[in-house]
Specification:
Blueprint (H helix, E strand, L loop, with lengths): L7 H10 L4 E7 L2 E7 L23 H4 L7 H4 L12 H7 L11 H15 L14 H12 L5 E6 L6 E6 L4 H24 L9 H7 L9 H8 L2 E5 L2 H11 L3 H10 L9 H5 L20 H8 L10 H19 L2 H10 L1 H11 L4 H7 L7 H24 L3 H15 L4
Helix pairs in contact: 1-7, 6-10, 6-18, 7-8, 7-9, 11-14, 14-15, 15-16, 15-18, 18-19
Length: about 425
Amino acid sequence: MVIMTGAGRGKNWLAKAGAGLLSICAFSAHGIDFKIELPPQKGVATPDDAAFFDDALAVSEAQADSPYLQSESDLNAAVPSPLPPVSETAKSKEKLPVVVASPVNSSRKKTLQAQQQADFAMPEMGSFPNLSCLRENVGFWKRVYAEVDTNEALIHDRDDLDKIYATVRLGGGENQRQQSIRMLKEHYRNAIRSLAEKIDSPKSWNQTERSIAKLFRPSELTRSRLVQAGESVRVQQGLKSRFNAGVQRSLQYLPTIKSIIRQQKLPLDVAYLPHVESSFVNYAKSKVGAVGLWQLMPSTMELLMGRSAVNKRTEPQIATVAATKLLKQNYQATGSWPLALTAYNHGLSGVLRAVRKTNSTDLCKIIERYNSPSFRFASSNFYAQFLAARQIALQRYSELSKNRDVGRIVAPLLASRDKGAL
């Protein structure tokens, strides 16, 4: 067994807990990359500090993935169901309407053109600003969505997402991955603590400590700052293949979602939110009971749509109506899309409380000033996740738009980008 370099205390802990762990270290200016190979096991791992924050998909990757959409017949295929087989009648109810080209007369063509212009004229430009305070956070989540795959993870600072200590590759089943992640977190905590203790003796730093020190500005290399960093080590699983599969699944839902967003008179960009919430897995279920594309809680659904709708959160049309109503209420109450989207995760009453406590409607100032046990990593990062998901999804849609049928579906979203919404 090869033990990762680091503080002596970290070595001893790993030696006791890491039987069967093989580590290959590569040092660079960006930190240390570990390749972790463990005996393969069946099952899909759930990341530490969950991939969707508190969410865990209740379906396997194989059940969630759909084939690459190339033709009209592909576009009309039913959404893959993670549930046990059902009757053909029941299956047919799950199919969503898809925009398919058909001959139209000139008057109908003009009507369609007018409708498309109305879509593009919706209030999108500047509605979802790229806040300067979230630049590093957006970059972090773009990496999670586009570069780091589901069998990999980033070891990083929870409060400064620009500090990524390592990229790790995980093998094995869920239990082994969880054990590996715990070991890595403890290793980096110990290494940072050791660096803090030896901060005044650079010549005594080992290779791991020197690599960590490179991530901190000279003004940050203080004992107190490093002690704080040692308590802020976090692990984030990559989502690249899951996100790409979600882009393809979304093509079956976007026509319906776009129509409902238009009815609610909301910016079209809210259609990107399920990329963050569920990767467009309709039967996604979180540990706390949120369900569906939009991850709606039972109490929220009951307030918005009535008690009878609670069990219909996996019906895309009904769930989308509920989600857009909630977003509209959030925006009307806050007057800001950064706050409205943050309220979607944190709750409207919580965001309004943060506004009162900080005397500000600026999300940057709220993140900086607001200190609450409930307003933590998930809530403060939710808007950054949305911005990152929107940018990566737009890139994927642009690539897919070369297919004529797919192009018709994503055209309004691409037009949103061309108008400067990004």
